Amino acid sequence: MTPVKTMLGPVLVALTAGVVLPAAAQDQAAPKKKLYCWNQNGQRTCADSLPPEAISAAREEINVESGMRTGEVQRALSDEERAAQAEAEARRRTEALAAETRRRTDQAMLTSFQTEDELRRVFSERINLVDNSINTARYNVASLREGLVTLLRTAGERELAGKQVPEKIATDIRVRHAQLRYHTALQGSFERQRAELEVEIEDILQRYRDLRTNDAPGARAALGVPPAPRQ
């Protein structure tokens, strides 16, 4: 009987280990499986992995076990959209700088500037920024127009020769035309800002002249400027 007991010991240990170890492994945090859902050719498509053509598409991520949505990824922006986003951000910065400059100018007029020339220098940063934006927009418009003319000439020559216009050239023409219209409108916006800035500067200078002439206490209080010291 002793040999039997001796042999059963390791067998029981092995059997016990065989039962316990998988359970312990199950307690370890396993990666949660995801389901990806996106629109493809107008239809909703879901899979547990993303095919190459869906990498840049907008999609939802869903937990397979709970069925709950765990995340959302926006589609990748095209080159044209990224360019438009950058232009919009540049315009936003320009407008924010204009608002801040107006605020600082109003507060400082009565206390910091002894002459109109000193006040005019406050606007130099805004003037340079708008002028640079105008020059950049004009360059972009000229470059886009030149590129569009070249593409149209190429397409026209192919048609006159009885050849089909490649889809890539047709697409490039549409994209370049849309970009040209956008940058032309942007140039007009910057040029209007420049004209409005000239009017604004003259208005502020006139206001400064009036304040310096009258030293109006009401105007000082509205700007948060302390009263002028008594002579």
In brief:
The protein contains 6 helices and 4 strands, in the order αββββααααα.
What spatial form do the alpha-carbon principal axes imply?
A: flat
Mean of residue pLDDT values:
76
Q: In terms of structural class, how would the helical and strand content be classed?
A: alpha+beta
- Counting DSSP E segments of at least 2 residues, the number of strands comes to 4
Keywords:
single chain, 231 residues, alpha+beta, 2 domains, four-stranded antiparallel β-sheet, 6 helices, flat
Structural notes for this entry:
The chain is an alpha+beta fold and 231 residues long. It has two domains: 32-76, no CATH class; 79-223, no CATH class. Helix content is 68%, strand content 10%. The chain has six helices and four strands; from the N terminus they run H-E-E-E-E-H-H-H-H-H. A four-stranded antiparallel β-sheet has the order 2-1-3-4, with no helix packed on it.
Q: What is the secondary structure topology, with strand pairs?
A:
Elements: H1 2-27, E1 34-40, E2 43-47, E3 59-63, E4 69-73, H2 79-112, H3 116-120, H4 124-160, H5 167-214, H6 217-223
Antiparallel strand pairs: 1-2, 1-3, 3-4
Helix pairs in contact: 2-5, 4-5
